[in-house]
Each structure stands twice: as C-alpha cells, then as structure tokens.
C-alpha cells in the first residue's frame, strides 16, 4: 500500500521549526518492534508523492532519512527537482546490523543509527523496540572510528572550542573561527551532545546552516544528527550506554526461510571494487547459510551488489523457482514483528581500512 503525503514548501517550514519544540516533534523517526528470533528485518518501505516545491532533501528530513540514502533508493529521481507527481520511495525497511541488540549501534557506511532502549535492569534487561535515525559521519580524511565504546557524558547547550587543526582548516578558506562558540543557533554542536569514550568524538546535533546536511560524509569524525532527532534521543540515553560502531556495507537477514541482503555504498577509503564487495557478500552468505541452508538467486544477488540501493532485497529462491526469477528490490516484508530477540555478536569480515577504536585519535574535541 502506498502512503501519500503533501510535501510542498517544507524548507521554509523547517527553518521555523528549529525554534519550536512542538513542530520539531512532528519529525517521523522510525520506531519499530523487535523482530522475532528468526527475523532480522524491521520497518516497511513507503511512498510519498512529490509536489512542485519539493526536493528529495526536504522529503528526507520530513521522514528522518539521510540525503545519500534517499538518493540511493531513488536513482532515477532528480535530487533537486523530483517533479510534480513523482512517487518517491522512503527506504524505511532495514536489516539490523550484526551487532548486539542493545544500546546504540551505528553502521558507518549506511549512515544510520539503531537505538535499542532496554526494559528492566540487570541480566533480564532486554529491548522491545528499535528507534532508528539517519546520521552524518566523518569525511574520508577525518573518518569515524570503528569499535565498541560508551556514552561517558551528556551536555545540554554545549559550547564548542574549535581545536587548532579545525581552526587551521577553516583559516585556509578565510573563515577564522573564534576560540569559543557559545550555545545558540550557530553552534555546530547544536543543542545536545553526548561524549563517547574515545577521546574527541561525540554524538550531537547541528546548527541552522548544516541542518539539511544529515546523511552525508561531512563531519570531522563525530556522529551528527538532525536537531529534532537528537532532541528525542538525548533524554532516553543514559551515561554508560554502550555504543557499537561497525563497518558493514553488506548486511544479511532472514525472515523465516527467506534471506535478504542490504547493500550500501562502501566507504571511499576502503577502496572496495564491485568484485571485492561480491566476495564480502559471498563470505557472509556462506557463514549465514551453514546452519540455515537456502538456495541463492544469483541474479538478484548480482543486481543488489552491483547497484547498491540500501534497500533490502530477497536473494533466496522459493520452492519451485529457478535462478533469476526474483527481481531485486521487489519483495517486501510487511507483517508486524512483535517479539524480542537477544542475538550474540560476531563481527563479520571487516572491510579494507578497518580502524579500531584503539587506533590513535586526536585528543581534542572535534565535531
């Protein structure tokens, strides 16, 4: 079923929304129930109809999607002029990353955060739902680290003290930064910040000028969120919450006996060719099908790897089908997934250029 919403004139409305908590609350972050033990997919894809004044960037922000992911899911739609009446796919279905289903999980190449709020305390604590947000990550020369850390401090209305490296970078362009940027609409950390255990890295919001740049590689290594999204996440996250940062351009997931693949563009610095991406997918498929054998639709697998869309694609063959019978991206899971699931964590084969959290990082507060 297609869901249609009028989206015209949203850019002006969102600028006003930055000053209004009531309007900020309208952002549509995805909240879904935990899948059962035999399922790894959550959410549902939806469609909206674009109108004359819309851009894909406007639509992305309205529905808590990132720039790159909505463009990747709609490869034939113009980013800036989708045209009146165009059906725009909202890629709101996800294969969960191969990571613990608790705390915060961030898949770097996907540029998406999955938050698993725990119910209860102690050994019996478990997650019953998932809240997912788009994020921006570090540029190629300021890459976001990989590994496990924790939230060590929460700061409301933070001041920003630009480190020397960033001040020098801006000065080359004639932009001379002050020693301290006070809290306010021009603070690049936004209204809320959460420090991570690895020195110099935070999860934070952003200022008015950068508010539409979420879902791209634009930061100096930190995790940047829409202001309205971080405003919702901040009060839910406690100091000590685990944070898993993973590099998984290829994700696999079952729903019953059906195997799906979700492929995002690998990080540029990983320099992965299509052949290497296929080799990674093949290794993961071999590992996942050892205990749960399925026949693979090679045509769908090839299409998903050669043309990453960030959209889950069915790659297993159903009984009676022949190879190539299923079109990539056409099979959707739509049933509700109400149960809880705790999954053991096994890091899949790492992409080239894997950077652990214990690698040297600047001991300064960046953004």
Can you give me a brief rundown of this structure?
The protein contains eight helices and 20 strands.
Number of strands: 20
Structural class: alpha+beta
The radius of gyration is 20 Å
The largest beta-sheet arranges its strands as: 1-10-7-6-17-12-13-14-16
Strand content: 15-25%
| Biggest sheet overview | 9 strands, mixed
What is the strand and helix layout of this fold?
Blueprint: H1 10-17, H2 21-24, E1 30-33, E2 41-43, E3 46-49, H3 56-62, H4 67-73, E4 87-90, E5 93-95, E6 103-107, E7 112-116, E8 118-119, E9 126-127, E10 129-134, E11 137-138, E12 147-156, H5 164-171, E13 192-196, E14 202-204, E15 217-219, E16 223-224, H6 227-233, E17 242-246, E18 250-255, E19 258-263, H7 274-289, H8 298-306, E20 313-314
Parallel strand pairs: 6-17, 11-15, 14-16
Antiparallel strand pairs: 1-10, 2-5, 3-4, 6-7, 7-10, 8-9, 12-13, 12-17, 13-14, 18-19, 19-20
């Amino acid at each position: 079923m297609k869901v249609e919403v009028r989206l015209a004139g949203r850019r002006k409305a969102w600028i006003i929304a930055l000053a209004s908590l009531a309007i900020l609350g309208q952002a549509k972050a995805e909240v879904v129930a935990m899948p059962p033990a035999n399922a790894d997919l959550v959410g549902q894809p939806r469609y909206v109809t674009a109108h004359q004044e819309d851009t894909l960037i406007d639509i992305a922000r309205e529905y808590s999607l990132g720039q790159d992911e909505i463009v990747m899911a709609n490869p034939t739609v113009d980013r800036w002029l989708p045209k009146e009446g165009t059906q725009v796919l909202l890629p709101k279905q996800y294969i969960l990353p191969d990571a613990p289903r608790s705390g915060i999980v961030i898949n770097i190449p996907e540029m998406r955060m999955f938050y698993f709020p725990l119910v209860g305390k102690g050994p019996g604590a478990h997650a019953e739902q998932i809240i997912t947000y788009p994020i921006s990550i570090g540029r190629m020369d300021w890459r976001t680290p990989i590994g496990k850390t924790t939230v060590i401090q929460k700061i409301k209305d933070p001041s920003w003290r630009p480190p020397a490296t960033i001040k020098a970078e801006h000065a080359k362009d004639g932009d001379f930064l002050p020693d301290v940027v006070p809290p306010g609409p021009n603070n690049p950390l936004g209204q809320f910040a959460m420090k991570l255990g690895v020195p110099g890295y935070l999860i934070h919001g952003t200022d008015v000028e950068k508010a539409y740049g979420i879902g791209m590689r634009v930061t100096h290594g930190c995790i940047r969120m829409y202001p309205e999204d971080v405003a919702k996440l901040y009060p839910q996250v406690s100091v000590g919450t685990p944070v898993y940062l993973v590099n998984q351009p290829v994700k696999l997931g079952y729903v019953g006996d059906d195997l799906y693949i979700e492929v995002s563009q690998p990080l540029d610095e990983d320099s992965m060719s299509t052949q290497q991406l296929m080799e990674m997918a093949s290794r993961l498929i071999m590992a996942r099908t050892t205990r749960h054998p399925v026949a693979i639709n090679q045509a769908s697998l090839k299409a998903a790897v050669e043309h990453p869309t960030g959209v889950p694609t069915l790659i297993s063959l159903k009984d009676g089908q022949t190879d190539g019978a299923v079109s990539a991206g056409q099979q959707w899971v739509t049933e509700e997934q109400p149960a809880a699931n705790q999954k053991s964590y096994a890091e899949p084969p790492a992409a080239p250029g894997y950077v652990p959290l214990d690698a040297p990082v600047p001991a300064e507060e960046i953004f």
